[in-house]
């Protein structure tokens, strides 16, 4: 399948359309995001007791325990990837004017697509770990040891160690890797879940599509940074207002308002993030012309 390159302004357009699709289809988007959020929290809940034990004062983080926790989290995260594909299918149906329901995120499991998506996720994990390892080796071998020392310092409530040599090089390389992986993941996941491509073909499309659209991906990252700064200012102002009201009414107001606001923010982030992924995939590999816009039912 042909991958298309886009102009720099497409990066801003992906973010704008990702926000807009959540606004136009709130019921399937936010409902699906709620189900997805619960599914994504399950791996963290399973490993939480071990994490709490490792964070106790005086506890020395074991590399074996740390590696085991990472392995368990990654294996459980593989089971969530079919739901990501299902969520993209919900967005696609909503954008096409078809019936879209929040529970349709489970369709990859009910329609026998889950194993292919889990295989895709496993291959993607291997690629990601390999790329991170290459970056860490290029920046110097002391970063992993420094991270373990920082975790131990946090657990023992002592000042963290100073930044190791090569930290800024690693930061720059990891930032470039994040930019590439953003496009690569969106395109390849869209291909395997919406484009009916095989796993290896989808991976190849993701690599080529991300490289072809490096400049719009950079514009997207800068646009995301600006939006995040504005959102952070708005959140800080909201926190100040809630704190002032809590002093006048009582601290119970903080819990009454903070929990729904936190959940709403998390759902909005999920909806916008996958909306961006969908439109990025569509501009690079998907429909050449925008599908008919219609309000989806749930």
Automatic annotation (TrEMBL):
Transmembrane segment boundaries = 33-52, 64-87, 117-147, 167-187, 217-246, 252-272
Q: Which UniProt keywords apply?
A: Membrane, Transmembrane, Transmembrane helix
Q: Does the keyword Membrane apply?
A: yes
In Swiss-Prot or TrEMBL terms, this protein is called Uncharacterized protein
The upper taxonomy is: Bacteria, Pseudomonadati, Pseudomonadota, Gammaproteobacteria, Lysobacterales
């Amino acid at each position: 399948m042909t991958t298309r390159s886009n102009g720099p302004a497409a990066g801003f357009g992906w973010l704008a359309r990702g926000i807009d699709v959540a606004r136009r289809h709130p019921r399937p988007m936010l409902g699906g995001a709620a189900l997805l959020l619960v599914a994504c929290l399950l791996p963290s809940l399973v490993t939480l007791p071990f994490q709490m034990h490792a964070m106790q004062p005086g506890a020395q983080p074991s590399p074996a325990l740390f590696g085991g926790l990472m392995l368990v989290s990654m294996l459980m995260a593989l089971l969530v990837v079919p739901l990501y594909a299902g969520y993209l299918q919900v967005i696609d149906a909503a954008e096409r004017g078809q019936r879209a329901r929040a529970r349709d995120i489970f369709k990859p499991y009910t329609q026998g697509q889950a194993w292919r998506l889990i295989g895709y996720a496993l291959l993607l994990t291997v690629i990601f770990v390999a790329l991170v390892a290459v970056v860490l080796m290029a920046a110097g071998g002391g970063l992993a040891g420094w991270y373990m020392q920082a975790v131990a310092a946090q657990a023992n409530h002592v000042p963290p160690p100073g930044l190791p040599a090569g930290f800024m090089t690693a930061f720059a390389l990891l930032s470039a890797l994040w930019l590439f992986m953003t496009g690569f993941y969106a395109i390849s996941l869209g291909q395997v879940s919406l484009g009916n491509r095989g796993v290896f073909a989808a991976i190849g499309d993701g690599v080529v599509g991300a490289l072809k659209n490096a400049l719009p991906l950079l514009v997207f990252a800068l646009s995301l940074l600006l939006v995040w700064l504005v959102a952070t200012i708005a959140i800080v102002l909201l926190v100040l207002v809630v704190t002032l009201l809590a002093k006048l009414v009582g601290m119970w107001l903080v819990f009454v308002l903070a929990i729904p606001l936190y959940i709403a923010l998390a759902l909005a982030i999920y909806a916008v993030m996958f909306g961006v992924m969908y439109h990025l995939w569509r501009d690079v590999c998907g429909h050449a012309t925008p599908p008919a816009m219609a309000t989806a039912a749930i």
